[in-house]
Amino acid sequence: MLRHLIDTAVRGGLPPVAVRLQSSKTPGQGDGNKLSHPVKLANNADIPIVDYNDPDYLPLPEYPKKSNEPLDIKKQRLLYQSRKRGMLENDLLLSTFAAKYLKDLSKELTEQYDSLINGVTNDWDIYYWATNVKPTPPEHDNEIMRMLKEHVLNAGRESRIRQPNLN
């Protein structure tokens, strides 16, 4: 049944880049392989792997702006989001940055910081921009990014091997 489904997918529907069938048997050993296309056989399981071409355009979700959010609540949210990035490098950089600067930021700078860490970007992009590995795009080349880059330089040689304590 599974082989029939794979064969049907190959003949019609979506054109795969490659179709492989992992199996411990080799072709012609009576394994019932009735596929009309060549397969690579390896490993110990009958697990089909179908690779399809990616579409040219993948829509990226927009982060919903919270226009009526009070400034103190926004800063609390940003403090949390600065600490929980999903990669240790940004957890350390952004949590120490937020602990040092967030409480004193103006509304405009807080909005810039919110756009930076919650915009349609990859965390690695933020890391590379902050460490000057990649050029910062114009939409994020602002006062907050300059402050973050200065923070990353760590002129005071502060220890940043763990996130700061919450007060």
From TrEMBL:
It is found in: Mitochondrion matrix. Interacts with the flavoprotein subunit within the SDH catalytic dimer. Belongs to the SDHAF2 family. InterPro entries: SDH (IPR005631), SDH_sf (IPR036714), SDHAF2 (IPR028882). The keyword Chaperone applies. It holds the Pfam family Sdh5. SUPFAM superfamilies: YgfY-like (SSF109910). GO terms for cellular component: mitochondrial matrix. One of its GO terms (biological process) is tricarboxylic acid cycle. This is Succinate dehydrogenase assembly factor 2, mitochondrial. It comes from the Eukaryota. Keywords: Chaperone, Mitochondrion. Plays an essential role in the assembly of succinate dehydrogenase (SDH), an enzyme complex (also referred to as respiratory complex II) that is a component of both the tricarboxylic acid (TCA) cycle and the mitochondrial electron transport chain, and which couples the oxidation of succinate to fumarate with the reduction of ubiquinone (coenzyme Q) to ubiquinol. Required for flavinylation (covalent attachment of FAD) of the flavoprotein subunit of the SDH catalytic dimer.
